[in-house]
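As a warm-up, study this chain.
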Amino acid sequence: MTELKSKVLEILNEDARRAPELIATMLGAPHEEVLTAIAELEAEKVIVKYAPVVNWSKVEDDKVTALIEVQITPERGRGFDAIAERIYLFPEVKTLYLMSGAYDLLVEVEGHNLKEVASFVSQRLSSIDRVLSTKTHFILKKYKQDGVVFEDHEDDNRLVIAP
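Now compare it with the structure written out below.
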């Protein structure tokens, strides 16, 4: 990857609303080169989506998010990929990671209420062949996501006392 593409990615990752003209100015690069770099990154599926970070607790209180640890038996010849594909195709699944450690997959699921998420886990996820166990953790509050702090915080104005 070229240095220009790498720098463009860093800038867009920080704020995807930045216009190519501004990025070109920030990098001291020609506008056309920045446009070409962005187009190539999109064509190569390096940039797959432009999305805002939304604090949903300010918009709708009825959304429930859960993180589910899933232990599975890998499928011969395809490993974890076949089961991961079955899981990520469910519309409730927002994020899916292959993990190291005590469990194999970490699934982020959203629903309208606890019952909906529980139903997904018990009826759809747990019933998949090769799923050995699940452990569900409900998110109670998000403080920070993708580097963005959601809550205003007060500065610590206490005096530092050193021994």
